[in-house]
Structures are given as C-alpha cells and as structure tokens.
Write a structure and sequence with these properties.
Layout: H1 11-49, H2 53-82
The structure holds zinc ion.
Length: about 110
C-alpha cells in the first residue's frame, strides 16, 4: 500500500516527501535485514558448515561493508526526511525523530486538498 497525494497546490511537494519517507523506511529495513542476516548467517556458518578460516573472513567483510553502506544510507535519508521543508510554511515538516503525516508547525496534512 502506497500513500499518494492526488490533488491540491501542495500535492507535488507532499508526494516528494512521501517518496523520501518510504525510502527512509526501506533503508532502516535494509539495515536491519543485513544485520540480522549477518548474525544468523554467522551462527549458521559456524554451526552447520564449520568453515575454514578462509570462508569466514570474506563473509564478515561483505556483511560489514553492506551494513556500513546501509547505515550511511539510513543516516542520509533520515537527515533528509527530518529536514524536509514544509511546502506551506517552509519550516521542517517532520518531527525531529519521527516523520509523521502532518507538519508540526502549520498542521498541513499529507491528506490536504
Ligand atoms: Zn508547515
């Protein structure tokens, strides 16, 4: 399910905000998925396969690099979504820690007409 703003003078900018917010959540989920797969993969690698040292190091390297890229993307989108300017009042649309559905300054909603 995807929320899209269809009409109103602020619709293009609000849709931009919604795309950015979806990207923010995808980055968080990707980071968590990489973290969990590294954790589970590491345990399974040790328990089931009993790998030689030569397999473990590249696995850890790939997981750490992928996790680092996902973490940077998560921080970057977090900064962008929380600093996104409201199209009506020009101040920050989202709360500092939670990208919500309405501007916490002028109360413009993503459902605005
Ligand atoms: Zn506003």
């Amino acid at each position: 399910m995807q929320t899209v703003v269809y009409a109103g003078p602020y619709a293009p900018k609000l849709n931009e905000y919604l795309r950015l917010r979806r990207r923010y959540w995808r980055c968080i989920l990707t980071f968590v998925a990489i973290f969990m797969s590294g954790l589970i993969g590491g345990v399974l690698l040790d328990a089931l396969v009993a790998p030689p040292q030569g397999i473990r190091t590249p696995f850890i390297l790939v997981v750490v690099l992928a996790g680092a890229v996902a973490w940077v993307a998560m921080i970057w989108t977090s900064v962008r979504v929380t600093r996104w300017p409201c199209p009506r009042c020009g101040r920050r649309f989202a709360r500092p820690k939670w990208p919500g559905n309405r501007c916490h300054h002028c109360d413009l909603s993503i459902d605005a007409d």
